[in-house]
Design brief:
By secondary structure, the chain is α/β, with parallel strands linked by helices. Helix content is about 50%, strand content about 10%.
Length: about 550
Amino acid sequence: MPVSPRLRDAHPAAARAVRRGVHALAAALVLGALLLPDTLAGLRPDRFARIPAEAVVGAVLLLSLPRRPRIVAAALCGAGTGVLTVLNLLDMGFTEYLGRSFDVVLDWGLLDDAHAYAGDAMGGTAADAAAVGAVLLVLLLVTGLALATVRLGELLARHRSRAAPGALVAGTVWITCTALGLQVSGVPVASDRAAGAVQAQARRVVETLRDEAAFAREARADAFGATPPDRLVPDLRGKDVVFAFVESYGRTAVEDPLIAPGVTRTLDARTEVLARAGYRARSGWLTSATFGGSSWLGHSTALSGLWIDNQQRYRTVTAGDHLTLTKAFERTGAWDTVGVMPGVQKAWPEAGWYGLDKVYDAFDLGYEGPKFSWSTMPDQYALEAFQRLEHGRERDRPLMAEIILTSSHQPWAPVPELVDWDELGDGSVFDAVRRAGKRPADVVADSAGSRREYGRSIRYSVTSLTQWLERYGTDDTVLVFLGDHQPIARVSGPDASRDVPVSIVAKDPEVLEKIDGWNWTEGLRPAKDAPVWKMSAFRDRFLTAYGSTPHPTGG
């Protein structure tokens, strides 16, 4: 910010103070960007009381250049620092919500999902304003850091006689601190944070590109890819088999001190109710390929037997013909196969890969009630619609269904309440339920409140699903239900595992006898020490348990 000559002449002291203040602000902005961590937990004052190597090297570089190259170099370095700052901020957000860093190759598409989620939580206008604000912030950071670096470069050049020795001293101090390992409060005084961040981003890009080719080869190999149709799941012939995914149903729901008491009471109570109706259950743990979101990665991992932990892997596998667990039923020709997907609101070409003859999306279930934040309809309604449209119909052969339950999707407000099944109608009955519920913005801002409402949503989803089974299940119904991933880190905790519960419920004792060797816990609540498998192991174990014969295809 240049000071006008008239102001400088009229008020020299004030002009000098303004000039020095702008210099100090530029230095603080650049140093802060160079020292900025990539996690919210790292935002501590001691992290910014360090000597960044990049600042020393940059000062030496700018001092060695003539004016025009110096300005260009300073602008490019500043803009690059601005881009790095944006990536650090994205890392903070992704770590807070998804428990992992931002992938510069794969994750840009998730920003659209973030905008949609913000719209559900805060309203469309607020979400649009936040998106515009985010774009402006990016532009301000990149432009502001470029201008700040240019200003500092010009300042160094004007005071070259003092700046050059100062850079030499700073470099010597940095080298000394590094050699001696000097620390303050456990934090090294010498920092190369920005260089390390650039290196980490570059490493992720290289790893992502290498993984794409390696995974394509892995996906072509399939232990059951060439299994004849009559040798796929022969021990379930004649059964109606339902695979239900419960959104964000993770180990946290069963073990967190604040959340677990209500959830475990519900699981135990529903186990007893189902037992009185003749059903038995076995439960264990699966380690999900995703955390906090990207539910489709969990769905595809569980059903394909492949570890699908990023969007590129998902695109690769769904473009091929790797056998999914659901498609195994379709391939036999012995089942009708349907999908109930209330969260799908646009074209979904993956239906063919999953082997689903018919898919009911958010617009096909006849729902006329209100949305519950992100969830287009309560789980109870989606299950009743499934009963009306498919499960309750007279048919010539049994049914295999994949159902995605969405009521436990963040931000967990408002959470639906159970109503009488006979009063569900077109869903309008939920208008009053939604009006009486909490506002998403209030829950999002309250960490403890988010945890409580998350627990309520899991209780609602599990109760809806097991009531559907109690009400409509038959002697030949087999229900497999599991979580797709843990809830976001703000709810599950920064060090939470990726484990999710999985249960198999049936009346026919032979169905559960087939998995006796799994050593799963009796009932709907898996014991803390119950077996834990990678989610990608589930498909092959399930197919094998129910009589499928491996016939591999090559990679």
